[in-house]
Amino acid sequence: MTSVWRRRSNPLRLSKGMDRYPLVGAHHSIEGGHDRAVERAVRVGCLCLQIFTKNNLRWDGKPLTKEGALAFRRAVTKAGLEPVVAHSCYLINLASPDDTIYERSIAAFEDELDRCKRLGVKAIITHPGSHTGSGAQAGVRRIVDATNRLLKGSRDVSILMETTAGEGTSIGGTFEELAAILNGVRARTRIGVCFDTCHTFAAGYDLRSLKKYRDTMKHFDGVIGIERLRAFHLNDCQGKLGSHVDRHEQIGRGRLGDGAFRNLLRDGRFREIPKLLETRKRQDGRSDWDEINLAKLRKLARPRR
Question: Can you give the pTM of this predicted structure?
Fold first, then answer.
């Protein structure tokens, strides 16, 4: 599988004796400045990074200064973190049947794309949206129309639709819904999927045994196409298979268990695809969950002898 990400050598990997694989990292806060997220990521041993471009619970954000964007770019280059992706604001709903919310969502997303461009971030992950009662088909149409508008206006950043748990009226709980979105977008090279392990499991796709994992990925490939999978969120799941409950858990401590992550990390097709934690940070006053989880993922990635 050819990577869509351009790779450079990572000085962090070399200085700490880390292997090239697995390409694992985490989401980190931009509190105090976007470059602080890079510091936090390096501290726990990330090789790739996810950020919010602004406050994720507000429609608008503080202006992104030229100095702040430059500081972030320099920090990323110095650390060798690659790739860096963004996650969109949680208020955005590109499937909304309410025209006011819909247009506000598009405007907010346009701002996110502009921030990504200025920060040098090449892809932004988003939840497809919620149809809030208008029906999945209508919601998909709204998402497709919005995405075509967004990608026509911005040619520097790709959009990755995230798999969802299928809660309530949310869209993206089936591979078929995601395929309908991707197939409707005209800029095919700039639209892809972020595969969230917790969400996908909660939606009913099993990853735990090697056979079930292969069946799920075969289904994904047949419906969407493996080549369109551009990022992973690695989260264990508190809920049962098919529960449609989005509750993240630390790696190996949820219903997915070690097996699911071992299966994914040893799948050679995904060597160059970024794999990002979105789990709670602090275990206690001394330990950091990211360090624990990243170490575990590296261990699970090692082939059996």
Answer: 0.93
